[in-house]
C-alpha cells in the first residue's frame, strides 16, 4: 500500500516534501511539546511572554478609553497589534506548533547533535513569525510619533519584513554552512538600513515635530534591543553554539519584553494626554472631505 501511494503521488508533492520537512521537521508536536515543558526554564521563557502580552493588551485597552484624536488612536491600534501577534506566536511556541528539530550542515558546531531522540537542534522558527508580523507595527508607531511620511514608514516596514524572513532562511538552511551565514549577512544589512532610518531620518523629523524627548527614549530602547537579536543568533544554537537553547530562548524573550511591552507602555503613557505634537485633528486620516452645505 505504501509503495502504491508513493508511485501515485504527484511530482510537485514529492519535490515539496524536503522543504516541508525543513520547516516543520519530522518530530511530532507532542514530542516537541513534552521536550519544552520537561525543561521548566525553557517553558517559562515562552509562558512568561504570553502572560505579559495579555497584560499589555489589557493595559492598552484601559489607557486608550479616553483617546479621541484619530492619529493617537492609530498609533494605539498599531502597538496593540504588537501584543496580539506576540500572544499568538508564543502560544504556537508553547504548543510545539512552531518548533522544529533541524539537522545542521557539516562544519556547524552543532552538526551531529541529537535533540529529543532526533538528529538536529531545536529551532524556534515561530519567533521569526513574531518578528515578521510585529516589528512592522513597532515601526509604524515610531514613524508616526516622529512625524514621518508614509513613504519612509512603509519602506522601513518592507525592510523589516525582509530582515526577518532572511533571518528565518538563515535558521532553516541546512544545505551548506556558508549559505546560513550569507542569509545572516543579508538580514543584518537590512537591519542596518532600518537603524539608519531610526537614528538619522526619524530623529531629525522628531526634532521638527517636537516629539524628540519621547522618540529618543523609544529609539534607544528599540535600536539597542534589536542589536541583541543578531548577537544572540550568532552566539546561540543557530550560530556558534556558545549559548545553549535555554539561554538563547531567554535572551530572545528578554529582548521581546523590552522592545515590545516596555516600548508599548511608554508610548501609551505618552498618548494618554493626547499631546498636541502628535494630535492630527478630527479630519486627520479621512479619505474624503466633509461636504459643507451652502445656500445658492
From TrEMBL:
One GO CC annotation: membrane
Keyword Cell wall biogenesis/degradation on entry: no
Entry GO MF terms: photoreceptor activity
Database matches in InterPro entries: Arc/bac/fun_rhodopsins
Primary location recorded for the protein, binned into one broad class: membrane
Compartment(s) of residence: Membrane
Stated name of the protein: Bacteriorhodopsin
Lineage of source species: Archaea, Methanobacteriati, Methanobacteriota, Stenosarchaea group, Halobacteria
Amino acid at each position: 500500500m505504501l509503495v502504491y501511494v508513493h508511485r501515485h503521488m504527484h511530482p510537485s508533492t514529492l519535490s515539496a516534501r524536503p522543504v516541508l520537512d525543513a520547516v516543520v521537521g519530522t518530530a511530532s508536536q507532542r514530542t516537541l511539546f513534552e521536550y519544552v515543558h520537561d525543561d521548566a526554564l525553557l517553558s517559562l521563557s515562552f509562558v512568561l511572554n504570553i502572560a505579559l502580552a495579555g497584560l499589555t493588551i489589557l493595559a492598552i485597552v484601559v489607557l486608550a478609553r479616553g483617546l479621541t484624536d484619530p492619529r493617537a488612536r492609530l498609533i494605539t491600534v498599531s502597538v496593540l497589534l504588537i501584543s496580539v501577534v506576540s500572544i499568538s506566536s508564543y502560544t504556537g511556541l508553547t504548543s510545539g506548533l512552531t518548533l522544529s528539530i533541524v539537522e545542521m550542515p557539516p562544519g556547524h558546531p552543532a552538526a551531529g547533535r541529537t535533540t529529543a531522540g532526533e538528529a538536529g537542534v531545536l529551532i524556534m522558527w515561530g519567533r521569526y513569525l513574531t518578528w515578521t508580523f510585529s516589528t512592522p507595527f513597532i515601526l509604524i508607531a515610531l514613524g508616526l510619533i516622529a512625524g514621518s511620511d508614509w513613504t519612509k514608514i512603509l519602506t522601513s516596514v518592507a525592510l523589516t519584513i525582509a530582515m526577518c524572513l532572511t533571518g528565518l532562511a538563515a535558521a532553516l538552511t541546512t544545505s551548506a554552512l556558508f549559505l546560513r551565514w550569507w542569509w545572516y549577512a543579508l538580514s543584518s544589512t537590512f537591519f542596518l538600513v532600518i537603524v539608519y532610518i531610526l537614528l538619522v531620518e526619524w530623529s531629525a523629523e522628531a526634532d521638527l515635530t517636537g516629539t524628540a524627548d519621547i522618540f529618543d527614549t523609544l529609539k534607544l530602547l528599540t535600536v539597542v534591543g534589536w542589536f541583541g537579536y543578531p548577537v544572540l543568533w550568532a552566539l546561540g544554537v543557530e550560530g556558534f553554539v556558545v549559548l545553549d537553547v535555554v539561554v538563547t530562548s531567554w535572551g530572545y524573550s528578554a529582548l521581546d519584553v523590552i522592545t515590545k511591552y516596555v516600548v508599548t507602555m511608554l508610548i501609551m503613557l505618552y498618548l494618554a494626554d493626547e499631546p498636541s505634537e502628535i494630535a492630527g485633528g478630527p479630519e486627520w486620516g479621512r479619505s474624503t472631505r466633509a461636504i459643507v452645505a451652502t445656500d445658492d
